[in-house]
Amino acid sequence: MMKHIHFIAGRHEAAQNALAELSKRYGQSNIEKADVIVPLGGDGTLLETLNKDITQNIPVFGMNKGSVGFLMNAYRVEGLLERINKAESYEIHPLRMRATTSEGKIVESVAFNEVAIFRSTRQAAKISIYVDGHLRMAELIADGVMVASPAGSTAYNFSAHGPILPLSANLLALTPISPFRPRRWRGALLPQHHEIRFKVNDPENRPVNANADSIEVRNVEEVTIWQSKRIQRHLLFDPEQNLEERIISEQFII
């Protein structure tokens, strides 16, 4: 029985007002003693919450006070404890990114949605793609390319015409961003255990940046991505609108 809630709110007024309203009604537990964390805002607020190490063993029940909120439950003040205790739990694992910059600096980060690399000037990026050390594409000329998790496949990946992945598919989406050559290449579906590496061709004249959710690394020369089974988070959803159902329904929206 979960009854101790720690609320986290986005910076905008609607989320802050919701924080005040819910804290007054249900109290605000210290995060170390909380049974559940409730982020208030949009998907960005949820992703910031998931990136906190302390959420490794505390389930997260997000409520939408943002714009899209695909990974959030509907906002309602009444019956919150009952909803949390009836919620369905989903275990998700993030992507890990290791980026090497032109200065030789190595930056590591995690991403629950996607890792994307994209051009930072007017010129298209030129990128070689390796899967488990094997060269699969000698040169992709595009605005960029990304690797998306199933939970993140409905976000930037879907906007770039990538596939929506059911959580049970155990796949990653490799999706180009505005490809020029090869023009008709729409990406690939890869089993989650594969390691994907992007090597930037001509980084001095065609600089590229990398993003792992909200973390940006500038002027990268190489980016390696894999799924980390050692890191896990538990997302809670109302049974009538669980994450699996949302992912399926999103594919039939015109």
Provide an overview of this structure.
This protein has helices at 13-26, 43-50, 80-86, 156-159, 243-250; strands at 5-9, 36-41, 63-64, 88-92, 95-101, 106-111, 114-119, 125-131, 134-148, 171-181, 188-191, 196-201, 208-212, 215-217, 220-227, 233-237. Strands 5, 6, 7, 8, 9, 10, 11, 12, 13, 14 and 15 form an eleven-stranded antiparallel β-sheet that branches. The protein has a three-stranded parallel β-sheet with strand order 1-2-3, with helices on both faces. It has 254 residues and is an alpha+beta fold. It contains five helices and 16 strands. A hairpin with a 4-residue loop joins strand 5 (95-101) and strand 6 (106-111). The chain folds into two domains: 5-92 and 232-250, Rossmann fold, CATH 3.40.50; 95-227, Probable inorganic polyphosphate/atp-NAD kinase, domain 2 (Tumour Suppressor Smad4, Sandwich), CATH 2.60.200. The protein is elongated.
Give a short summary of the structure.
It is built from 5 helices and 16 strands. By secondary structure, it is α+β, with helices and mostly antiparallel strands.
Keywords for this structure?
single chain; 16 strands; 2 domains; 3-stranded parallel sheet; 254 residues; 16% helix; Tumour Suppressor Smad4; Rossmann fold; 11-stranded antiparallel sheet; alpha+beta; 5 helices
